[in-house]
Design a protein that fits this description.
Layout: H1 5-18, H2 26-33, H3 37-49, E1 53-56, E2 62-65, H4 74-81, H5 104-123, H6 128-132
Antiparallel strand pairs: 1-2
Helix pairs in contact: 1-3, 1-4, 2-3, 4-5
């Protein structure tokens, strides 16, 4: 299902790309997003696990990009936050005796696969630097 993780992660990385030589605190980042710093740190942890950012503790600590924004695509960010986009399925099992009910989920699977291919293709063409240059 769709959540705000992609938007939050993109916000974090865009902010970091604006200050490539600085370590930004989770409190500073959270203030930009208007989000609890604990949730920001959770997303930063995922970014560290994917070798996109590095963090430093202490008074002048924080997080910064580990590689240039020109080398990170929005597709990379998408893959760190989702496996695929799914618009969901009905909670109840469709009637298998109905011509629509017996194939609805299968046809939704094909639709979602097509949507994901298009999303991946478009996001692969946009770097974090491209996106960041809008601000």
């Amino acid at each position: 299902m769709i959540s705000g993780k992609f938007a939050i992660t993109t916000h974090i990385l865009t902010l970091l790309s604006k200050f490539p030589n600085d370590y930004l605190s989770s409190e500073y980042i959270a203030g930009s997003i208007n989000l609890n710093p604990v949730l920001v740190r959770k997303e930063i942890s995922n970014l560290k696990k994917n070798h996109i950012v590095e963090s430093k503790e202490g008074k002048n600590g924080g997080t910064r990009l580990l590689k240039p924004a020109s080398e990170i695509t929005l597709h990379d960010i998408f893959k760190m936050t989702f496996d695929t986009v799914s618009l969901g399925y009905a909670k109840n099992q469709p009637n298998p005796d109905c011509p629509v009910g017996k194939r609805i989920n299968e046809n939704l699977d094909f639709l979602y696969l097509d949507i994901n291919e298009k999303i991946n293709a478009q996001l692969s063409t946009i770097t974090l630097e491209d996106f960041s240059n809008q601000f």
